[in-house]
Structure formats: C-alpha cells, structure tokens
Write a structure and sequence with these properties.
With 303 residues, the chain is α+β, with helices and mostly antiparallel strands. The protein has two domains: 8-154, no CATH class; 238-303, no CATH class. Helix content is 55%, strand content 12%. The strands form three sheets. It has a four-stranded mixed sheet. Strands 5-6 form a two-stranded antiparallel ribbon. Helix 3 runs antiparallel to helix 5 (133-153), helix 6 runs antiparallel to helix 7 and helix 7 (176-201) runs antiparallel to helix 8. It is elongated.
Length: 303
C-alpha cells in the first residue's frame, strides 16, 4: 500500500498505537464544515459532525490494529487523512489471521449501528427533535455516516476492506499469491467502475478514491507477481522461517547492505562473501519477518 505517513503530524499514542493526522485533513475539514452551513443553525454542529466522522474512522482503524495484535501480528501506527484512515497492520501470513485483522474494522461499524439506532429511537419520546433540533440532526447524520462507511468499506473491491476480506477467503482455497492476484484483478474492475461514476457525477472525491484504489491495486498486483515467482523457486532444506515456517529459497536473493552485491545468505551463514559484512538478522522472502540465523536452523531429531 502506498504510504500516507509523509506529511502527517503526530496526534497521540494510545494502547500502543501512534495516531497521525495528514495535513490535508485540515484543509478538507475547513471546506466540508463551511459547505454544510445549511444543515444546522450553528456552525458548532458542523464541526461536531466532522469530528464524529474523525472518531468513527479512528475506531474503525483501531479495530484493525487490535485484532491484528490479537492474532500475533504487529500494529503500531494509524494515519488519518481526508479519504479515511490507514492502520499499518502486519498480521501473521495466515489466511485466518489476515481475515480477522481486516474484518474487525467493519465489525466496529456494525456494532455502532444498533447503538446509534437505539439513541435515535430514544430521542423521539424525549422530544429531542423539538427541544434540540441541532443535536437530533447531528445524531441522524452520525448514524448515516457510520452506515455509509460500513457499506462502502465492505464493497468486494481491493484494497477496500471488503476486497481484502475476499482475498483472505480465497487464500484458504487458492493460496497466498493467487488469492491476491484475483483480488487485485477484481479491484481493477472496481476502479474502472469508480472512474466511470466519478465522470458521470462530476465528483472530485470519487475520482480521488479511484486514484487511491488504482495505486493500491497496482501495488497489490506487483506483490502477487513477486509472491508467485518466490513460490516457484527451489527451497533449502534444514532451515525454516521461525514466523511462517516456510523453507528459504535457494539463490542469490539477498542483497548486502554494505557492498550491494546479491548473495545466498543461507549458504554463507548470513555473511556477505564479497565484503565479509555479517548480518545479525535474516529476512524471510515469504512473510518479510526478520530473525537471527540461529532461529532459522531446523534441529535434526536424534534417534
């Protein structure tokens, strides 16, 4: 996924997750708040509505992060920007772990639907519509925003949550690389639909979303192609990744960080044969995990 971290400001750290806000969010917030002046009698409620959107997106992204940690992955950054949010999650390379890490985000919105609905039902006999029309309109707007975000995110179009959930389900049947390939191809079809809708409605926002999706689909396609190439390579016996348990590939597939020469790190015990640089950590081409060479060695059973 293309990084949105650049140009972001650090807001706070909570539950071990650093939350960043992209600078463009402030510009869009000013535009959106002033564009909705006819919805409320006070500008304060326009601000509260936009902050409610901020909070819902943040809760959604925290759902991804906490679920990823629950399955043994890492998740320590969230970036919020005008098109939504990005939780930088790295679940274990298993379909079930990835599925839960992705599905937990929309599930937060699912939980919010009945909560906000109950508040809306209770507001009627309490007379909020007559006594506090701005607050009643705000509650209705937040309910619609949450529902809209839920429906949008579960569209089966990569890289939306729905597309990544589809990819995780296909992973059980097609494997890691082919499932990503299928998901990105479907994603390209979704991008085409969004572009057509953006042109038809003259919507700048839909066009921006289409560009974002296109960038991610292209990145996903390249990743799928790389995974397919790695899957076809011969494997070295006697070693296994401590994280994903995959045997390492045979070949000069690691590059020395000092002299930039490619070499087979398992053949030389993590030492560059050209400049003799020793590397304390060895990366897995399958899952991207970094581990000391000693943890890669598979012990030979004694008889």
């Amino acid at each position: 996924m293309p990084s949105t971290r650049q140009g972001s400001v650090h807001l706070f750290r909570a539950i071990g997750v650093d939350v960043f806000l992209h600078w463009s969010w402030f510009l869009v917030a000013v535009y959106e708040i002033n564009a909705r002046t006819n919805r409320y009698s006070s500008l304060t409620f326009n601000v509260l509505e936009y902050l409610a959107l901020f909070l819902i997106v943040l809760l959604h992204e925290y759902g991804h992060a906490l679920a990823c940690r629950q399955v043994g992955g890492t998740a320590n950054q969230i970036v919020l920007w005008p098109l939504g949010g990005v939780a930088y999650v790295n679940p274990p390379p298993r379909p079930g772990a990835t599925l839960w890490s992705i599905a937990a985000g929309p599930l937060v919105n699912v939980v919010l639907v009945p909560v906000l609905s109950v508040l809306g039902v209770l507001s009627r006999p309490l007379g909020w519509a007559e006594a506090m029309p701005n607050a009643h309109a705000l509650l209705r707007a937040v309910w619609l925003v949450n529902l809209g975000l839920l429906l949008f995110n579960v569209l089966p179009i990569y890289p939306l949550d729905g597309g990544q959930i589809l990819r995780s389900l296909l992973w059980f049947v097609l494997g890691r690389a082919r499932s990503l390939m299928v998901a990105t191809v479907i994603g390209f079809l979704g991008v085409a639909a969004f572009i057509g809708l953006a042109v038809w409605t003259h919507s700048v926002w839909l066009g921006a979303i289409a560009v974002f999706m296109l960038m991610n689909c292209w990145s996903g396609l390249r990743q799928a192609q790389a995974l397919l190439r790695v899957a076809k390579l011969p494997r070295r016996e006697g070693f296994a990744c401590p994280q994903c348990k995959a045997a390492p590939c045979v070949g000069d597939l690691w590059k020395c960080g000092v002299c930039k020469q490619p070499f087979d790190t398992f053949q030389t015990q993590a030492m560059c044969p050209y400049c003799a640089a020793q590397f304390p950590m060895t990366g897995c081409l399958d899952c991207g995990g970094l581990h000391p060479m000693s943890q890669w060695i598979v012990p030979v059973p004694a008889y």
